[in-house]
């Protein structure tokens, strides 16, 4: 009798253990997607089970309001987060096999973060998490020269970018100020200022942990620009001086010519007066 009781206890324990692993919910660790694109967040049951009569809930920070809810065989949008309105869809083509990914359309920077896929049946539940990273390559950096300082600015990055300065030999230049902040679109802007270095040109490169490309680069030849400005200034000064000298010479020539003409008219008047007097005599 005691052996039967022990056997029953062992069988009951095994049965409960089997129930506790009735299915597992799985996804992938992370998904990256470009800003404005559509993204697919996977959610799968293992082993395969029909999920038509289960509750499938996608949520972020809290159980409710949710990102998307499928319950009682249909989608329920009554407590959906406002930012996801008309942008989500639970794909049900393979729901009988325990596969029901979520589509989020036209992703924004605010959509970045962790998502939870919670699945509940009549006798079991499980949950998996996936990290969504929305990426954005910002604008081409703009370098500006102001007296003894140089600034570099780039906008609309995600995730948070970093900025580096290098000279013509590839040596890094330390920034005197770096500012990174979110704009109205929840994307990152970055601004950096350095003291003007003794280099023939400088490079400002902006990148982040996702976008490693250096196509966001602008080069400004400082010495050449300064030399050009100096040369233009010298040309202006020389040209103005030449014009003034020419104007002065013309004025002197005109003055001399006027004196000559006045003297010539006086002599003519004298000779004419003398001739008239002789005739009268």
Automatic annotation (TrEMBL):
<protein>
    <submittedName>
        <fullName>Selection and upkeep of intraepithelial T-cells protein 2 isoform X1</fullName>
    </submittedName>
</protein>
<keyword id="KW-0812">Transmembrane</keyword>
<feature type="transmembrane region" description="Helical">
    <location>
        <begin position="235"/>
        <end position="254"/>
    </location>
</feature>
<dbReference type="InterPro" id="IPR007110">
    <property type="entry name" value="Ig-like_dom"/>
</dbReference>
<dbReference type="InterPro" id="IPR003599">
    <property type="entry name" value="Ig_sub"/>
</dbReference>
<keyword id="KW-0472">Membrane</keyword>
<dbReference type="InterPro" id="IPR050504">
    <property type="entry name" value="IgSF_BTN/MOG"/>
</dbReference>
<dbReference type="Pfam" id="PF07686">
    <property type="entry name" value="V-set"/>
</dbReference>
<dbReference type="GO" id="GO:0009897">
    <property type="term" value="C:external side of plasma membrane"/>
</dbReference>
<dbReference type="GO" id="GO:0001817">
    <property type="term" value="P:regulation of cytokine production"/>
</dbReference>
<keyword id="KW-1133">Transmembrane helix</keyword>
<dbReference type="GO" id="GO:0050863">
    <property type="term" value="P:regulation of T cell activation"/>
</dbReference>
<keyword id="KW-0325">Glycoprotein</keyword>
<dbReference type="GO" id="GO:0050852">
    <property type="term" value="P:T cell receptor signaling pathway"/>
</dbReference>
<keyword id="KW-1015">Disulfide bond</keyword>
<keyword id="KW-0732">Signal</keyword>
<dbReference type="Pfam" id="PF22705">
    <property type="entry name" value="C2-set_3"/>
</dbReference>
<keyword id="KW-0393">Immunoglobulin domain</keyword>
<dbReference type="GO" id="GO:1903037">
    <property type="term" value="P:regulation of leukocyte cell-cell adhesion"/>
</dbReference>
<dbReference type="InterPro" id="IPR036179">
    <property type="entry name" value="Ig-like_dom_sf"/>
</dbReference>
<dbReference type="InterPro" id="IPR013783">
    <property type="entry name" value="Ig-like_fold"/>
</dbReference>
<dbReference type="GO" id="GO:0005102">
    <property type="term" value="F:signaling receptor binding"/>
</dbReference>
<dbReference type="InterPro" id="IPR053896">
    <property type="entry name" value="BTN3A2-like_Ig-C"/>
</dbReference>
<dbReference type="InterPro" id="IPR013106">
    <property type="entry name" value="Ig_V-set"/>
</dbReference>
<feature type="domain" description="Ig-like">
    <location>
        <begin position="149"/>
        <end position="220"/>
    </location>
</feature>
<feature type="domain" description="Ig-like">
    <location>
        <begin position="21"/>
        <end position="135"/>
    </location>
</feature>
């Amino acid at each position: 009798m005691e052996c039967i009781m022990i056997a029953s206890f062992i069988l009951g324990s095994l049965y409960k253990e089997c129930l506790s692993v009735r299915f597992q919910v799985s996804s992938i660790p992370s998904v990256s997607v470009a800003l404005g694109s559509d993204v697919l967040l996977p959610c799968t049951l293992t082993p395969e089970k029909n999920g038509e009569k289960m509750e499938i809930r996608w949520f972020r920070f809290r159980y409710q309001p949710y990102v998307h809810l499928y319950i009682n065989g249909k989608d329920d949008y009554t407590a959906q987060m406002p930012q996801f309105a008309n942008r989500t869809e639970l794909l049900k083509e393979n729901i009988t096999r325990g596969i029901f990914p979520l589509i989020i359309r036209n992703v924004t920077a605010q959509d970045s973060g962790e998502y939870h896929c919670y699945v509940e049946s009549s006798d079991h539940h499980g949950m998996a998490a996936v990290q969504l990273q929305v990426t954005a390559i910002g604008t081409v950096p703009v370098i500006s020269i102001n007296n003894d300082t140089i600034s570099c600015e780039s906008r609309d990055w995600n995730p948070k970018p970093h900025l580096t300065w290098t000279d013509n030999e590839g040596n890094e230049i330390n920034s005197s100020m770096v500012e990174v902040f979110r704009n109205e679109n929840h994307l990152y802007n970055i601004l950096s200022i350095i003291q003007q270095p003794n280099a023939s040109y400088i490079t400002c490169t902006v990148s982040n942990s996702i976008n490693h490309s250096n196509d966001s680069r602008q080069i400004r030849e400082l010495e050449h620009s300064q030399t050009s400005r100096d040369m233009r200034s010298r040309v202006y000064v020389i040209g103005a001086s030449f014009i003034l000298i020419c104007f002065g010479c013309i004025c002197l020539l005109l003055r001399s010519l006027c004196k000559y003409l006045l003297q010539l008219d006086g002599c003519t008047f004298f000779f004419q007066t003398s001739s008239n007097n002789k005739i009268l005599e």
